[in-house]
Structure formats: structure tokens, C-alpha cells
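Troubleshooting entry. The earlier prediction with zinc ion gave an output that would not parse, so I re-checked the input for stray whitespace and re-submitted. Clean input:
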Amino acid sequence: MMYAIFFIIVGFVAMELSGWFIHKYIMHGPLWNIHKTHHQPNKGFFELNDLFSLLFGSIAVLLIFLGVGELDYRFWMGVGISLYGMLYFVIHDVLVHRRVKMFERPRNRFLLSIFRAHQAHHATNKKDDAVSFGLFVVPRKYFKIKSK
Ligand SMILES: [Zn+2]
Ligand SMILES: [Zn+2]
């Protein structure tokens, strides 16, 4: 049981850390042409940037597939990554970008700070001057602003 929880957390944390790194140095770097579709006004339901979600999703599915026989660390890391993906979708795609019209604007302090930090990320449509690339790890200053 502890084993499972440990590797679920490892998968989850690894996603936030590698996600931050990939977002900052790759998506706002060599793969900007794909990611920029997320920084431009969206015309359809899908954007080219969704390829990244597909990629992370595939990694999770692969890990679960490889580890399901033994229920080993790969399986539980896959579960952690999936959990991250689902939470990311609900917070980033539903709550912040309203791709699905569900839930109101959050009132919870932590959710609100995520909200503000990610809006700050979208304050620019350019490759180079963006801030706050993670999702769950929020700089303290976004907690301090009084909610309107
Ligand atoms: Zn970005
Ligand atoms: Zn966004």
C-alpha cells in the first residue's frame, strides 16, 4: 500500500517538475510552433498544443501497460501521471480556459492562486517573456492578491 502511494506521488511530482521544464525550455523553445496555438485565441475545440497532452497520456498508458502484470512501480507511476493529467485537465482546461463549460470560477484560495499564476502565464502571446510555467507549484505572490 505504501509502495503504491509512494510511486503514485513520484509520478505526480515528476509530471509537475518535468512539465515545468518542458514547458519553459521546449514548448517555449524549439517546439514553440506547436505550443503557440495555446497562446493564441482559440478557433476550434482542439489546438495543436493538445499533442503534448496526448504524448504525456501515452507515456502513462505505456507505464500502466508495462507494469500491470506485476503491479510494480511502473504501474503506480502511470497511475500518478494519469491522476496528474486528469487534475491538470480539470484545472487548466476546464476551470482556467473554460474549454468545457462546467464549474464556476474557483473560490478556494489554492485554486485561485493557480488561476492567477496561469493567467499571468497567458498575459503574453510571445515565446520569450512568459512567466510561471508549472501548474500546481504556485509562487507565493499569487496567494497574496486579494480576490475581487
Ligand atoms: Zn506556455
Ligand atoms: Zn493555458
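This one parsed fine. The mean pLDDT is 93.
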